[in-house]
Design brief:
Elements lengths: L5 E10 L3 E2 L2 E2 H11 L5 E5 L2 E2 L7 E2 L10 E8 L1 H14 L4 E8 L11
Antiparallel strand pairs: 1-7, 1-8, 2-3, 4-7, 5-6
């Protein structure tokens, strides 16, 4: 699979406790991205963060409910990202979704750098 040099980074900011059909939302997003043949997806777990509610989410030991911040990142061609967004919106009732243009330097093993 080739990625165009001018691609798009899709970021989805959710909570660790968010669910979709009984499974963690981040897993549902990655599985859907794979089903839609996206170039790849990465899940990042943050030790500290807050969102729209301004409620602090932390990994400190004394907290009973952590609900740590999760970021799912997907890089792909603009048309593939745009096709994925409606499916994503159907899974995420509350979250932050952003996109930005990125320049792909290398995707895969042994390919020439651009």
């Amino acid at each position: 699979m080739q990625l165009p040099e001018e691609s798009v980074l899709l970021r989805i900011f959710i909570g660790e406790d968010d669910r979709a059909d009984g499974q963690p939302l981040y897993e549902a997003i990655v599985v859907k991205a794979r089903e839609m043949h996206m170039a790849g997806a990465t899940v990042l777990r943050g030790p500290l963060g807050f969102g729209r509610s301004s409620r602090l989410h932390t990994a400190k030991i004394l907290r009973l409910s952590q609900d740590l911040p999760i970021v799912v990142e997907i890089v792909d061609a603009p048309d593939k990202i745009n096709a994925f967004i409606p499916a994503l919106l159907g899974m995420t009732p509350s979250c932050l979704i952003t996109t930005e243009k990125v320049r792909v330097i290398r995707y895969g093993e042994g390919e020439e750098t651009r």
